[in-house]
Amino acid sequence: MTRGFASDNNAGAHPEVVEAVARANTGHTRAYGDDPWTASAVARLREHLGERAEPFFVFGGTGANVLGLQAVMRPHEAVICSEFAHINVDECGAPERYVGCKLLGIASADGKLTPELVRARISGVGIEHHVQPRVVSVSQSTEYGTVYAPDELRALADLAHAHGMLLHVDGARLANAAASLGVPLRAITADAGVDVLSFGGTKNGLLGGEAVVFFDPAPARNFRFVRKQGMQLASKMRFVAAQFEALLTDELWLRSARHANAMARRLEAAVRGIPGVRVTQPVAANAVFATLPAEAIPVAQDAFFFYVWDERRSEVRWMASWDTTAEDVDQFAAAIARAVASPR
């Protein structure tokens, strides 16, 4: 199947990850994470995120986000997030159903929150008629492909903590953000004051696996029960853990993220000169957002599948992956140019 630009979820698993799973597929070991692969992967995560990090492996990103929030919230509390946030748009109401919380979405042109935007949503504190703000949640990189610098995260963490709140990061593309910023993973997590992290692996070359990471031992203490009750405890945990061990060895996470980011920048450069195409957001990670004539979109999708982000604006999203090639990018840009020049 042709490599497309719809999602980094569409890419296969990195060969180094597949090899790691195959190596783990020997003999018997204890189930549910009581195995040497899980212990090693936890140690690797702490090397990158700090010794205070308490990681727990789960299957998917929605599970990581929802259970991470559930561990630190009660049903009468609220999450302040971007209106574009994955928890707000693409998780089918899972936070509301399983946590019982309310999501307070904030509009922003680039998908990022600022202390000023968040401060305006902190209200009704101590009043029993209103939900109580408990968590500020941001995506890194954002659903719009933009990236929070360490000082931006620290400012949000400081604001949250000053109001007795916590900072949660949906890090489905955390590696792409760190690669874009040229900083270690802990610079945009532990060192920036993050309290709860969903650390993504699936979008960066894993077969399937994410981690919920706490930087405070209190919510971590009972999370193994939350994970089990939330149906996210893998019996054959070694196969999830082996993937993370591979991802965090020899900078595979960074190599893959850097490549995906570079392919997105190559695509941006290739389409900027096409009449009728306008790139709408700075390309910081591995996403390119652009508008083009509505009639050209289905023509281009016939050649390479991708998603429409905003039908009203004819805005589309193009995602590069760890396995996107320069040839893929050049062929796709040529298909966009043909579609714009000769729509049906």
Structural notes for this entry:
Helix 1 crosses helix 11 (about 235-245) and helix 12 (about 250-270) runs parallel beside helix 14 (about 325-340). The protein is about 40% helix and about 15% strand. With about 350 residues, it is an alpha/beta fold. The chain is built from 14 helices and 11 strands. The chain is globular. The two termini are about 25 Å apart. Strands 1-7-6-5-4-2-3 form a 7-stranded mixed β-sheet, with helices on both faces. A 4-stranded antiparallel β-sheet has the order 8-9-11-10. The chain folds into 2 domains: about 15-245, 3-Layer(aba) Sandwich (Aspartate Aminotransferase, domain 2); about 250-340, Aspartate Aminotransferase, domain 1 (Alpha-Beta Complex), CATH 3.90.1150.10. It has helices at about 15-25, 35-50, 60-70, 85-90, 95-100, 115-120, 150-160, 175-180, 215-220, 225-230, 235-245, 250-270, 295-305, 325-340; strands spanning about 55-60, 75-80, 100-105, 130-140, 165-170, 195-200, 210-215, 280, 285-290, 305-310, 315-320. The mean pLDDT is about 95. A hairpin with a 4-residue loop joins strand 10 and strand 11. The longest helix has 20 residues, at about 250-270.
